[in-house]
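To: structure subgroup
Subject: Chain for Friday's discussion

All,

I'm putting the inputs and outputs inline so they're searchable in the archive.
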Amino acid sequence: MQTQCLARSESHAVLSVSVRFLHLVARRVGALDQPQEWPIAESVPVRFVESLRVGEDVLHSWQEAIEREVPLDDAMLTDLAETPRSVVFAFGPSADREPVRGGSGKVVGTIERQQSRVEGAIDLSAERVGDNLYRVTIRIENRSPIVIDRPDDRDLALLHALVSTHTILGIRDGALISLLDPPEPLRGLASACQNVGTWPVLVGSEGDADTMLSSPIILYDYPQIAPESPGDLFDSTEIDEILTLRIMTLSDEEKRTMSTLDARGRALLERTEALAHGELMGLHGTFREFRPVSDSGGPNRGPLG
């Protein structure tokens, strides 16, 4: 993955960079043939299953995720132009097991979480491309050791992946340049920036130029959370309406299953079912203000939602 962007720099401009991603966890539900005391002996066989019903609850095997962040030390752009930096990182592996108790209080199953080791490197450099102007490059490389018997084993590969990787750049005593709508004199340099697997946009209040998000999804400059989304639903865009309506069509059994998956799923279910009619209709698309295309031919900028 590679991010490239342009930055205007005063003599002492300082760049800050932070890389974030999701580190997946394999959650497996195990069933016991006979109830046991905890901790269960190593000799007791555990059958891993897709789901396990315990009373009114249904437990499922699936994938969870932990947020990871790798902050880089602040660096002056002039220094980066002379001496690029490289940072290596590693997380995991880890494993834990928790008991699932039945009505008698004895253990009838287990929930096991296993996380594979992920390793990587982040290379940060800057190249002077004009007076007080630099092209900044961040390369993120996944160096995780992995042995896959089946090339099509996507679930196994994901456990070693840097999922939803995104980079946050900040600058002091300088300015980051929009790649979507750059000033006319910089359009050639902006179009020459090579971004692989990522999409950098300016964030913050419109007109700010001190923070950039390099995202795995396509955004406009200065994306905003849609005010129509009541509370923390899904991704705070129009997808909220689609997924909210989908939840409302679930059967009572499916809703009970959703409520037992995790705290996040349970909160989404409760919030969705508590939506008033007016709030739901408010998710049904909203016109934003229209803006003319800039004279330079760059794209419109506007909030998502």
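Points worth raising on Friday:
The two ends are 27 Å apart (CA to CA).
The chain has seven helices and 13 strands.

D.
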